[in-house]
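Notebook, p. 212. Picked up where the previous page left off. The plan for this session was modest: take the two constructs that came back from the sequencing core last week, fold each one, and keep the raw output in the notebook itself so nobody has to go hunting through shared drives later. Recording the first one now, exactly as returned: residue sequence, then the structure token string.
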Amino acid sequence: MKRICSLLLLYILAAVLLLPALVTVLCGNFRKTPPQEAKALYRTADLAPLDSELEEYVMGVVAAEMPAAFPEEALKAQAVAARTYELRQMRAAGSDAVLYDVGQAYCSPAEQKQKWGENYEGYAAKVRKAVRETAGEIMVYEGEPILAAFHAQSGGKTEDAAYVWNSAVPYLKSVDSHEDQDAPNNEVTLSLSAETILQKLSAYGKTGRTAASLDIKIVERTAAGYVAEVTAGELRLTGRQMREALGLRSANFTVKREGDSFSFTTRGYGHGAGMSQYGASFLAEKGLDYHEILRHYYTGIDFEKIA
């Protein structure tokens, strides 16, 4: 009787200990192959050459201008913006050939391999897919390719082109981009000595001040928060001029004197007009597609396919 009880106890213990493992095996958690969602999202076919030199150029621009880790819909938005900008420049120059030095960064295949390293195939396939799925698509306003300006990130609102280039552009209006405030390094502080500032501003005229007496005051801001007018002693400048002279990340800044130096705190990165790249990424993460993203940043535009 004791022997039977002992055997029964062993069977019970074995069942308690081994049953969970058996269920795990049957449910597949011990599979040697990874689950489907963990497999590569991009196929070798995505690395195939694109249909034209223009599309290959767009691929190189997107690779250079936007992080490949961004969502696909943001990469598609960048592809359409890059293609539109390039086509506008080609038409302005009366050229049927692709122009490689028109104000957009470009990354050749060799440079892409160097930039992405061991991630090259995955990132290259991802960007090529975004370019291929938007092939030939451009933005137009009243039937003409738009000036598809873009920048890295705003200070919370994009800037009206009238304050950036002193000329109003109907589709480059200030729009909300508050998600940009969560972008990396959206707020950055730069300290410059008064002597350095005097030297850098001398190209615009005389301040009428010594380094010890120099004062910098923000006179006016735009509705988007960028500096419209600023004074440095007797010198009056636009926020853009101050940004370019001092190498600030944006014209959306505050300034205060600290001893012999001035501390500039900027918000955003770039001129602020058109599409915010980080803003596009945030909107894509919220579920907007590339058409919705582009319509948000470029007011009143339409889309066309080029031959």
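Okay, moving on. Second construct, recorded in the same format:
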Amino acid sequence: MTRRATRRRSGPRRPVRRRRPRPVVWLALGAGKVLLGIAPVVGAGVWLATAPVFDLELDIQIEEAERVSEEWVRSRLTPLEGRNLPLLSLEPAARRLDHEWIREAELVKRLPNELTVRVVEHEPVALFAAGDRAWVIDRDGRAIVPCERALDLCGGDLVRVSIESALAGDRLGAGPARNPGAGEVSSRDVPGEVLARTLKRALDVATEVRAFEWGRQVRAVEVISFGIVDDDYMLARTGRPATVLVRGSDLTAKASVFELLRNAITEHNDPEVVDLRFRDRIVLSMEAPGVGIATDTEGAPAAQDEAQAPS
């Protein structure tokens, strides 16, 4: 047997070079990891988009419905039935319920497949009169429909509210009131926000006087003057006295006084008009107020008869 002797070389060793994977290999490995990561997400998305368990069904709730029927709401939303609920966009669906009597439409998704629809109707509280036209308005003074499309309401017990007399005053210019339903509550000389505030306050006055027995006979509230601080109102009633003039700032106090003295006032001389705007007296008049109301030096209607009342 032959033995070979090996000699070890002295000195530093040469580094061993390792071959790096090619870029294509790196890309393939990275893509594989990405695919493995997103595959469950994609699978879940496909399942959400195609699983029959998410096919939409309607659950419709209408609060105090008189003008909007469940059949109408369902007919508007029927094309959505069977659509995938998780992928349904609610904003376009809500636009399908555009109706003049719908105040609020709320759509809520309830997984897996129920779309709950809650509809709230406008509550008609008064009629807004302007010229020879009138509109049904809600508690915020917003026009709902013109009277020709709601004859049952316009011929009923709703109070008529008007601001035309105030607009006709010289200090406010000659611009007439415009229909709030047309999108502009404005006149030539009065800012729209002032008119909106005045109309809303007139509605509040109509509600406030209904708390009194005599106020239940009020059929119309007309703003005869308005300002930054206070407004004056003419209340038209059935029976006698047919007209009551009040100032907004002390409506409750003066209305209480009138409630106490109503019988005495009526028996006094059966007046046509009772003016409660003075600080220390009640003014009675036998003439019905016209478009223009004659005033004395204090700015109140000229008195034809007076009955004392506590301030």
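Notes on construct two before I forget. The CA atoms of residues 126 and 159 lie 5 Å apart.
Flagging for discussion at group meeting.
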